[in-house]
Amino acid sequence: MIAYVKGVLADIGQDSIIIDKSGIGVNINVPGSIITSLPDIGSEVKVYTYTYVREDAIALYGFMTRDDLDVFKLLINVNGIGTKSALGILSAITPNELRLAVASEDYKTISKAPGIGKKSAERIVLELRDKVNAVIEEEHFTDCSDTDTGRTDSVNSVISALVSLGFSCSEAAKAVKQVDNYEEMNDESLIKEALKHLS
C-alpha cells in the first residue's frame, strides 16, 4: 500500500491531480475541496494516499492531511458508501463538519454531498456515531477544561468533546451552560443539546 506520494505537481484536473515522481506521472483522485489549496503547478507536494484495488483497476485517492485520509477510510467502510461517494462527501463538507453532523445527527448537512440522500446519511450517522464519539473521548485538551474550577469532570469532558469538533473553549462552555439542567445530564445527551445551541 502506498502511504503517500511526494513529488512535483504536474497537472490539476477537476477531481484529480498528477504528481511527477522521478519522471513517472502518478494520477491521484482527490476531493474537489483541496483543489483550491494546492500550490502552483511545478511546486513540490506531499499527498497522503489510499490505494483502491479491484480486479479491473487500481486507483489512488489522495488527501492533504492524514485526518482527511482517516475520515475517508471511515466513510468507505460504511455499508453502501463507495470511494466515489466518500470523495463526494469530503468535497462538500470538511472532516470536522462531518464529525459534528454525525454527533448531532444532522442528516441535512451530510446530504449536501452529491448522491447522498437521507437514507444514506442516516446510515452514515448510525455506523459512524460510536466511532466518532470514541475519537472525541480519546482527544486531550489541556487548558480548556481547567478554565472554570466550579465545573464537574463530566461537564469538562463534554466541553473538550465539543472543542474536538472545532469549537473554541468559550463557545463550547457557553453552549453547555445554555442547556437546561446541564449538570444532571449524561455526556451524550449534553453533547447533543449543546450542539443545538452551536448550530
Largest sheet: 5 strands, antiparallel
Number of helices: 8
How many DSSP E strands?
A: 5
The helix/strand class is alpha+beta
**Oligomeric state of the chains in view:** single chain
Shape: elongated
Strands in their spatial order, largest beta sheet: 3-2-1-4-5
* Alpha-carbon distance between the two ends: 39 Å
Percent helix, as a range, is 40-55%
Question: In angstroms, what is the radius of gyration?
Answer: 19 Å
Q: What fraction of residues sit in β-strands?
A: 15-25%
Q: pLDDT under 50 segments (min length 5)?
A: none
What sequence of helices (H) and strands (E) makes up the elements?
EEEEEHHHHHHHH
What is the averaged pLDDT score?
85
Q: What is this entry, summarized?
A:
The chain has a 5-stranded antiparallel β-sheet with strand order 3-2-1-4-5, covered by helices on one side. The model has no long low-confidence stretch (mean pLDDT 85). Helices cover 44% and strands 19% of the residues.
Describe this protein's structure.
It is a single chain. The chain has 199 residues and is an alpha+beta fold. Helix content is 44%, strand content 19%. The protein has 8 helices and 5 strands, in the order βββββαααααααα. It has helices at 66-76, 83-92, 95-103, 107-110, 118-138, 153-164, 169-177, 187-198; strands at 4-12, 16-21, 24-29, 44-53, 58-63. A 5-stranded antiparallel beta sheet has the order 3-2-1-4-5, covered by helices on one side. It is elongated and about 65 Å long. The mean pLDDT is 85.
Secondary structure layout:
Elements: E1 4-12, E2 16-21, E3 24-29, E4 44-53, E5 58-63, H1 66-76, H2 83-92, H3 95-103, H4 107-110, H5 118-138, H6 153-164, H7 169-177, H8 187-198
Antiparallel strand pairs: 1-2, 1-4, 2-3, 4-5
Helix pairs in contact: 1-2, 3-5, 6-7, 6-8, 7-8
